[in-house]
Specification:
The protein has four helices and eleven strands; from the N terminus they run ββαβαββαβαβββββ. Strands 1, 3, 4, 5, 6, 7, 9, 10 and 11 form a nine-stranded mixed β-sheet that branches. Strands 2-8 form a two-stranded antiparallel sheet. It is globular and about 45 Å long.
């Protein structure tokens, strides 16, 4: 199988935190809107814990082919397709994609770590605040180059008072 174009999308605190106790440890409506704009119309691949962290009223994520990875046989995710491996999830996601379309991996930390070395693009919402958590973002290594920042300089400030910016990375 030829791998589809793969993107990862996440928000992270300045200390790398992406989650705490199975949920986002912040509320940033601007990031949720950005996430929706990036992923809408595309397949999204996530681990079981990420699926379970989504409020029931948002499961499955509307306007996206939801694919959940789990090692638990016979586990079900109503409205989503379930696969037992990352490879099987990416194969399913690629089945109906046009050549330039992207499969978005949306979490969690274990899935990000498993796929970052074959990904083509990262969409990262960087928060200028340290937040305690138990899940951290994968390292953005020299394999990646920053291609866009919004804002280009400085930070946006959310209605919640958190400084943030949207960063796009592509492979070198």
């Amino acid at each position: 199988m030829t791998l589809p174009r793969v993107g990862l999308v996440w928000a992270e605190a300045a200390n790398g935190t992406i989650g705490k106790g199975g949920v986002l440890p912040w509320h940033l409506p601007e990031d949720l809107a950005h996430f929706k704009a990036v992923t809408l119309g595309s397949p999204v691949v996530m681990g079981r814990k990420t699926w379970e962290s989504l409020p029931e009223r948002f499961r499955p994520l509307p306007g996206r082919h939801n694919i959940v990875i789990t090692r638990q046989p016979d586990w079900e995710a109503p409205g989503a397709d379930v696969r037992d491996s990352l490879a099987a999830a990416l194969e399913l996601a690629a089945a109906d994609l046009a050549p330039d379309d992207v499969v978005w991996v949306i979490g969690g930390a274990e899935v990000f770590s498993a796929v970052i070395d074959v990904a083509d693009r990262l969409e990262v919402t960087a928060l200028r605040v340290n937040i305690d958590g138990d899940a951290v973002a994968p390292a953005i290594t020299e394999r990646w180059r920053l291609v866009a920042s919004d804002p280009e300089e400085g930070w946006h400030t959310s209605d919640a008072g958190i400084d943030y910016r949207f960063l796009r990375y592509e492979t070198r």
